[in-house]
Write a structure and sequence with these properties.
This protein is of the alpha+beta class. It is 34% helix and 24% strand. Helix 2 crosses helix 3 and helix 2 (44-62) packs antiparallel against helix 4 (110-116).
Length: 128
């Protein structure tokens, strides 16, 4: 199995905090869910839906909005034999500072996200 990624590394996080991002930006999420979450009877997709419900108050406080969420269907370019990701999610944040406050807020449910996933990518994007 290839290397998987669930959380940012300290080095990546430091590089993100030093990026010159001004104003709104988007986080492009590629998500691969676990078949079953350990010690539960629910799927990773169900656990991620629970995370999305729990994170809504934090999104509201940070002025975040979901721009797109959907299920990839077919690779027009790329490997034909396998679909790598279960879901694509794009969230827009008003500012880098709002995002950082959100993920550092007391009670932010990051463990719920981590529990649901077997692999992910989180890519910072701007419209510039």
């Amino acid at each position: 199995m290839s290397e998987t990624f669930i959380e940012t590394t300290p080095k990546q996080f430091k590089e993100f905090t030093s990026l010159p991002v001004e104003g709104p930006f988007q986080m492009f999420n590629l998500l691969k869910f676990k078949d079953r979450v350990e010690k539960t009877k629910i799927s990773g997709a169900q656990a991620y839906a629970e995370y999305m419900h729990a994170v809504q108050p934090f999104f509201q406080t940070s002025k975040a909005k979901i721009i797109y969420h959907g299920k990839p269907m077919f690779n027009i370019i790329g490997p034909k034999e396998k679909r790598e990701w279960d879901k694509i999610l794009i969230v827009e944040y008003a500012s880098k500072e709002d995002f950082l406050k959100m993920i550092a807020a007391e009670g932010y449910p990051s463990e719920m996200r981590n529990r649901a996933l077997i692999d992910s990518r989180l890519i910072v994007c701007t419209g510039k």
